[in-house]
Amino acid sequence: MVRARKATAADAAELVRLRAVMLASMTGREPADDGWREAAERRLRARLDEPDPRMLAFVVDAPGGGLAACATGTVEERLGGPGAPEGLVGYVFNVATHPEHRRRGYSRACVTALVEWYRERGIVTVDLRSSAEGEPLYASLGFVRTHDPAIRLRFTEPRP
What we know:
Structural class: alpha+beta
Helix content: 25-40%
Number of helices: 4
Strand content: 15-25%
């Protein structure tokens, strides 16, 4: 059985490397580096070792070094409502497995560990967005499609 471990700040660079692998697999090309890698690594280093984290990742180590797979998630605070009175919702993102290590249960182990972490915190709703390739994994773990399509506003330039 594959076991995932909780990532630490020391894993930040590898988590960013796997994020680039995931983004490339979704778009078919290597993602541009407009500073996102450095910013992402900085954010991960700051957040992963917090005593009561709101961002967490679970990883599987690759034989020979580095990371084979990861799943990252956050705890989002929203206004409470039916089914989530405290307003805490889990959000899973950045689920990636390096192509050399796919089809071995690594992503399943990472997502399962992350979902269990949410459950231990009393979080009863966990959201994610999935590629078509990832959907069977999530469905097998109990995730179901919802009726609330996501929409987005994107600013082309941040305010100074």
